[in-house]
Amino acid sequence: MTQELLKTPLHALHVEAGAKMVPFAGYDMPVQYKLGVKKEHLHTRDAAGLFDVSHMGQLRLHGAGAAAFLESLVPVDIIDLPSGNQRYAFFTNEQGGIMDDLMVANLGDHLFVVVNAACKEQDISHLQAHLPQGVELEVIDDRALLALQGPKAVDVLARFNSSVAEMLFMDVKKLEILGVECIVSRSGYTGEDGYEISVPNEKAEELADKLTAEEEVEWIGLGARDSLRLECGLCLYGHDLDTTTTPVEASLLWGIQKVRRTAGERAGGFPGADIILEQIETKDVSRKRVGLVGQTKAPVREGAELFDSEGSKVGIVTSGTAGPNAGKPVSMAYVRADLAAIGTELFADVRGKQLPMTIEKMPFVPQRYYRG
């Protein structure tokens, strides 16, 4: 018996807007609208796109020990995270592999955590299994999550609450929009300036309707969300990250602050710390996540095998797109560590053809976060 797909609070709006709906992480989600993936992608980079990301998990951690507790499960500095800021983090397992990546915000009296839809149940169980006395985990199920992304996002959202314009990248605060309290962060998953807005379910449709009524805003589906994040070098869990991949292999060292590394004030103390810290020290890993740019016009998709000039298999593509703004096919891949240098030429097997690709620095297009 197939399980019935879950629906976000905005499901009816997507259908009304002519979205093509597909199953994603247990939900019936819009993959594209009438514009189509490429135009949606370009529109987000030029103006503003609205994404329904209500399928993601929203959680709260309450209690004086909440930051220390969460820090015991991630290799990230949570204790010193200032109030009104958020930070990228990832749960690790005892082998140093990544169980999920997440966003953690300090809202002063509690931590607000957003986890991936496909890992939601597993993450909740993981937190509950380690929950110490005095820390409470609250699963939020009465709020939708919207992402307004693109260079015009600030102009649009400031019409609803002018204080959003003063926020910087990774700031987060509680703000009133349409008469209800929303949790707004200046962040997103497109590489553009923009906001993520956690809004009570009963106001979600009204807010989405009002935002899409603004001239600059179009609905954007999962297809363009994927190509936008990939052009900006952002990982997708379950594709570019998984339980067998360490943060060092995944080139996510920027996410591990000095205070949690060897000789840091709070070094280690997270699952897989011995393995991860040793990899940081010795730089000894067998594979690395890299960016690849195609030398032909054919996109190289997930699952394509990579070969060196001798014909030996040296890696695999984990994400790939035509790269609408990059103007050339771009992919993310894991390759043998000794071949991970910028400028290395590799060959992707696409339907029996060996397509040349070059390792290039990510992001493939500039990230345009607003840092003031």
From TrEMBL:
GO CC terms: glycine cleavage complex
Superkingdom field: Bacteria
Residues where substrate binds: 196
This enzyme's EC code(s): 2.1.2.10
Catalytic activity, as annotated: N(6)-[(R)-S(8)-aminomethyldihydrolipoyl]-L-lysyl-[protein] + (6S)-5,6,7,8-tetrahydrofolate = N(6)-[(R)-dihydrolipoyl]-L-lysyl-[protein] + (6R)-5,10-methylene-5,6,7,8-tetrahydrofolate + NH4(+)
Protein's name in the database: aminomethyltransferase
Keyword match Transferase: yes
Similarity remark: Belongs to the GcvT family.
Residue ranges of every copy of the Aminomethyltransferase C-terminal domain listed in the record: 287-365
Pfam families, sorted: GCV_T, GCV_T_C
Top-level EC class as recorded in UniProt: transferase
All copies of domain GCVT N-terminal, residue ranges: 10-257
Gene3D superfamilies: Aminomethyltransferase beta-barrel domains, Aminomethyltransferase fragment, Probable tRNA modification gtpase trme, domain 1
Annotated GO MF terms: aminomethyltransferase activity; transaminase activity
GO BP terms in the entry: glycine catabolic process
